Structures are given as C-alpha cells and as structure tokens.
Amino acid sequence: NAGVTQTPKFQVLKTGQSMTLQCAQDMNHNSMYWYRQDPGMGLRLIYYSASEGTTDKGEVPNGYNVSRLNKREFSLRLESAAPSQTSVYFCASSEGTGLGSPLHFGNGTRLTVT
Amino acid sequence: QKEVEQNSGPLSVPEGAIASLNCTYSDRGSQSFFWYRQYSGKSPELIMFIYSNGDKEDGRFTAQLNKASQYVSLLIRDSQPSDSATYLCAVNWRGTYKYIFGTGTRLKVLA
Fold it and tell me: What separation in angstroms does the CA of A9 have from each of A23, A66, A88?
C-alpha cells in the first residue's frame, strides 16, 4: 500500500521552462490537494480537487494549472516556471467527507527554478 | 493576522520528559484539528486528529482541544530523541477543503 506517490522527487528548471508534477493515491480518497511549503510560511494550498471531475483554486494558484485525470491521479503543471516557484511541493489526499478528514501527504517534490 | 499560531521554538526537552506543544486558532468555525510530525527534508506525517473538546490519547501522544479558548495542544510523554522534528498544527474549517497550517514548532529531545 503506497499511499500517495509523487514524481519526480527533485527537479531543476530554468526560468520559462514548463513541467508537470504527478501525483497518484491508492487509498480510494475523493479529494486531492497540491500544497507548496516555503520556509517561514507554512503549507499553502495551490489547488484542490474535491472529487473526480472538479478542481478549484486555493490560496496561491497563480502560475499553476491542475488536472484531475481520474479518481487516483492529480497533476500540477507549471507552464512557465519562475524563480518564485522554487519550493517544496506536496500532494495530499483525504476521504473528503464529514468533519474534515485527515490529509495524507506524498513524499514531496523539491523544485528549484534558476 | 495568522489563522493558526504556533511558537516556532526550538522547544528543548530532556529524554524521558513530557513535551507540550501548543497551537491557537482564530476561526471559531474550525471543527477538525490535526497534528503532523515533519522530519527535516521529509513530508508531514499525521500523528493525531481530534474533533471534540477534551483529550484524545494514542500511545505516548495526547491531543487536547479547548474550543472555547481556541487552542489545541499535543503532549508527548516519555520523549525520545527520535521525536525530534517539527510539529505542524492544522485546522479544518467546517469540513471544507480549507485546511490551515501553522508554521510549526521545532522540538529537540536531548539524550
């Protein structure tokens, strides 16, 4: 049981390049999330998908797009990377029902934009 | 104004002692509360969650919630050096997508 799997683990991009971060969960969770974590700022929500077929903006969506490919997979795309997007990115999933079920995180992607 | 506040630490405790980590939140609509442990360079790992006022115990960990005072705490009994990590407090607003995280408290357990 892998939980939440993210790829790649590390990535270096040049300004203006594009890339897609992949995320898959095998817990049959309904909701999936993309966060970024920066020193001193905590985890901030980029986009989320409450259920298959829906996506919505979070706190810091500018410069990103997402796709909920199916119930298992939720990808994050940077169309034109900027140095301000240097961060650690975490995908998470939750059952998405009731009182606010716990988030389960993937291992993260460390992205550096030069 | 931060919605979830934690002392950044470091909080240093000797091995075997009780570590007490605190978190305050501003939104009275918050219903669910979570504690995550994050080792340096790793992802957040769920430790405890609590929905109701009072205490919830799981092994060496106890979560305490006081909605009237808007704080939630985590007690770690018999602290071990392996407990040294950053502990993140998170709250969920009314069962929605909105999870707000504190910036974490760094705990150091001294052998």
Answer: 11, 18, 10
Cβ pairs A/B, distance under 8 A: 58
Asked whether the beta carbons of residue A102 and residue B44 sit closer than 8 angstroms, the reply is no
- The pLDDT of residue B32: 93
Interchain contact, B46 vs A48, CB within 8 Å: no
pLDDT at B27: 86
The confidence score (pLDDT) of residue A2 equals 79
Is B2 a residue whose pLDDT tops 60? Answer: no
